[in-house]
DNA sequence: ACAATGATAGTT
DNA sequence: ACTATCATTGTA
């Protein structure tokens, strides 16, 4: 079970068993990619040295024709990456102080993406605030918090998920059992709020909200 | 319940 | 130019 602590430790000890997620895998509807990304690994080569591996615990899908999707009203400077090729990032600033990280889905020209909402980190980034150090399992519990922890901002907008860019994805090493994958409604939106396009690992301590 | 904080989209 | 809104978070 992926949420089991021993499984996480096994993944950390066997990094050579993993396989990078490539753009073609992301070339399908965000509503399919979002649940499939649960249990996959996000890797971040921090600018100042350490490599951080993180299990994806929580995602949300944003689709074409979805009023809650940033791409709903067409292409703009901010959301251009959503219309770009799959397997790239879309990073935006929200509420003037937090960044959010997405995986772009579907072919170029189609505006859709998966928001990464929570991660379980294998190691803690340097320079934690006392607040963060107190609850290490919550350091990446939320889309704004995970970008702060991994030093992700708009300079990483529109880049290919690839080691060369210091940011990439790897496939699951362990399957996620059906009962552990919870599907529910998205958080923090007012439009299309009834769509059940959020997924998370049941009972995982890094889930942003119940 | 609400303030922090800035970019964006829609309206004068 | 002005204003409401926003895929959030921490504090009260």
TrEMBL record:
Q: Which PANTHER family match?
A: DNA-3-METHYLADENINE GLYCOSYLASE
CDD domains linked: AAG (cd00540)
Return the broad EC class.
hydrolase
A Pfam family assignment: Pur_DNA_glyco
Keywords from the UniProt entry: DNA damage, DNA repair, Hydrolase
Q: Which organism is it from?
A: Leptolyngbya foveolarum
Name the Gene Ontology molecular function terms of this record.
alkylbase DNA N-glycosylase activity; DNA binding
> What protein is this chain from?
Putative 3-methyladenine DNA glycosylase
In the record, biological process GO terms are: base-excision repair
HAMAP family reported in the protein's UniProt record: 3MGH
Instruction: Give the record's family classification.
Output: Belongs to the DNA glycosylase MPG family.
Give the source's domain of life in one word: Bacteria
EC number assigned by the record? 3.2.2.-
* The UniProt record lists the keyword tRNA processing: no
């Amino acid at each position: 079970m992926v949420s089991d602590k021993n499984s996480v430790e096994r993944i950390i000890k066997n990094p050579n068993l993993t396989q990078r997620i490539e753009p073609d895998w992301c070339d399908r509807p965000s509503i399919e990619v979002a649940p499939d990304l649960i249990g996959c690994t996000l890797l971040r080569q921090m600018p100042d040295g350490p490599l951080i591996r993180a299990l994806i615990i929580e995602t949300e899908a944003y689709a074409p024709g979805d009023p809650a999707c940033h791409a709903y009203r067409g292409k703009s400077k901010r959301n251009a990456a959503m219309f770009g090729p799959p397997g790239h990032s879309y990073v935006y600033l929200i509420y003037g102080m937090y960044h959010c990280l997405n995986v772009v889905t579907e072919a170029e020209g189609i505006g859709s993406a998966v928001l990464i909402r929570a991660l379980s980190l294998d190691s803690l980034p340097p320079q934690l605030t006392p607040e963060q150090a107190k609850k290490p399992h919550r350091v990446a519990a939320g889309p704004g918090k995970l970008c702060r922890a991994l030093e992700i901002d708009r300079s990483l907008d529109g880049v290919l998920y690839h080691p060369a860019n210091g940011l990439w994805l790897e496939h699951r090493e362990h399957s996620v059992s059906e009962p552990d994958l919870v599907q529910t409604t998205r958080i923090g939106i007012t439009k299309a709020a009834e769509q059940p396009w959020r997924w998370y690992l049941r009972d995982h301590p890094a889930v942003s909200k119940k």
